[in-house]
Specification:
The structure is a single chain. By secondary structure, this protein is of the alpha+beta class. The protein folds into two domains: about 55 residues, Alpha-Beta Plaits; about 150 residues, Aminopeptidase (3-Layer(aba) Sandwich), CATH 3.40.630.70. The chain is built from seven helices and eleven strands. Strands 6-7-8-9-10-5-11 form a seven-stranded mixed sheet, with helices on both faces. It has a four-stranded mixed sheet with strand order 1-2-4-3, covered by helices on one side. Helix 5 links the parallel strand 9 and strand 10. The chain is globular and about 55 Å long. The N and C termini lie far apart (about 45 Å).
């Protein structure tokens, strides 16, 4: 890219040329719009948006953390929480609230959020029109207290964000997500960025080429456009 990020045109074909290479920070392109066409192509090529205002910045990070559904690491404390059964877990319920809280609940060591209004609207459209964005919602006594959401293509779940208003609530959501994905033969969860937290849960770091091979394998399966339900 000659030291400058590639500026995308949302109407070009393809939007993200296969020749693109990320810089040392994982930045691979800037600009464009959060339309369904752009987002689906981006994720299918291991690219995700992450920004705090215009222009949109697109990343393809290396190393890339992924979590295989059958390798989630469950601590003894989390196991006790699950056995207590004090949380009610639902799929694709209160999607908009989950995304909103992912963008507004403060996190340690993080200032602000990339989930602005345009991001919120784009992923909500994908949920209600195509059902390729999904959420796991965690409730206690009827109150939404934790959850996560992401996007699915083929047999890959691209994790976007999670939140907790009570201890371990987001981890409970992740446990139920992994169990659901395992039952439905999903290949992996893309965790996008390496953090100590996600590594502590069992995620592994892959090179970009290894990661893209897995994405391509997962995309050989058809996309499913339906709301998720516990089974």
């Amino acid at each position: 890219m000659n030291g400058l990020p590639y500026i995308i045109d949302s109407h070009s074909e393809p939007v993200f040329p296969d020749s693109l290479q990320p810089d040392e920070n994982g930045l691979i392109a800037v600009g464009g719009e959060l339309t369904e066409r752009v987002l689906v192509e981006a994720y299918s090529k291991g690219i995700f948006p992450w920004f705090n205002g215009p222009p949109i910045m697109w990343f393809s990070t290396e190393p890339r953390p992924v979590l295989f559904p059958d390798r989630l690491r469950i601590s003894k404390r989390l196991e006790r929480t699950l056995k207590q059964g004090r949380f009610d877990v639902q799929f694709d319920r209160d999607f908009e609230k989950v995304v909103f809280l992912c963008g507004t609940v403060p996190r340690r060591s993080q200032e602000g959020s990339w989930i602005d209004r345009s991001f919120f609207e784009a992923y909500t459209r994908l949920h209600y029109r195509r059902y390729i964005t999904h959420c796991v919602s965690v409730y206690r006594e009827g109150r939404l207290c934790g959850g996560l959401y992401g996007l699915t293509l083929g047999r890959v779940f691209f994790g976007e964000s999670m939140f907790s208003l009570e201890a371990n609530a987001s981890k409970v959501a992740l446990v139920h997500l992994c169990r659901w994905l395992k039952r439905h033969d999903f290949l992996m969860i893309d965790c996008q960025q390496v953090t100590p937290h996600i590594l502590s849960l069992g995620a592994v770091e892959l090179s970009r080429s290894e990661y893209l091979e897995l994405v391509n394998e997962g995309l050989r399966a058809p996309h499913h456009h339906y709301p998720w339900r516990e089974d």
